[in-house]
Amino acid sequence: MTTMTAVRAHRRGGPEQLVLEEAPRPEPAAGEVLVAVHAASITPDELTWDATWTDAMLPGGRDRTPIIPSHEFSGAVVKLGAGVRAPLLAEAVYGLIPFVRDGAAAEYVSVPAEVLATRPASVDDEQARRAALDRSVWARA
């Protein structure tokens, strides 16, 4: 397995718990896409939500620390999981990662293909990352 640099937290708390370290590089499972992250942001209260730290949106999920925060992102597709037809390799994309998964404060993130949108050429990575905050973008899904 290869590694990447990531921002992670090994215990609950605020931004003081975040550390920059080497982490395993994810591999896309069936229906997922590996994205090289170009821009990402952490929602202000993200580190206080149970879903950030567990595998469930409701209380009572299994702990999944260490976690990688930051769920709004943009980047480029570098690998497709089994069964993925779109997006294409090297395509510029952006999206909002489900909060029960690791986020994009890393060199790479593996995400379900259905949470991605193609980044228009007229929009840069930072603009696309900000657009991921607008949930109306996901009304088409």
Mean pLDDT: 89
Q: What spatial form do the alpha-carbon principal axes imply?
A: globular
CATH topology: Quinone Oxidoreductase, Chain A, domain 1
Going across the major beta sheet, what is the strand order?
6-3-4-5-7
Low-confidence stretches: 135-141
Q: Could you spell the SSE succession in H and E letters? A: EEEHEEEEH
What gap, in angstroms, lies between the N and C termini? 33 Å
The number of helical elements comes to 2
Largest sheet: 5 strands, antiparallel
CATH class: Alpha Beta
CATH superfamily: Medium-chain alcohol dehydrogenases, catalytic domain
Strand content: 25-35%
Structural class assignment = mainly beta
Number of strands: 7
C-alpha-based Rg, rounded: 14 Å
Second rung of CATH, namely the architecture: Alpha-Beta Complex
Number of domains: 1
In which range does the helix fraction lie?
under 10%
Q: Can you give a write-up of this model?
A:
By secondary structure, the protein is mainly beta. It has a single domain (3-140), classed as Alpha-Beta Complex (Quinone Oxidoreductase, Chain A, domain 1). It is 8% helix and 33% strand. Strands 6-3-4-5-7 form a 5-stranded antiparallel beta sheet. The model is unreliable at 135-141 (pLDDT under 50).
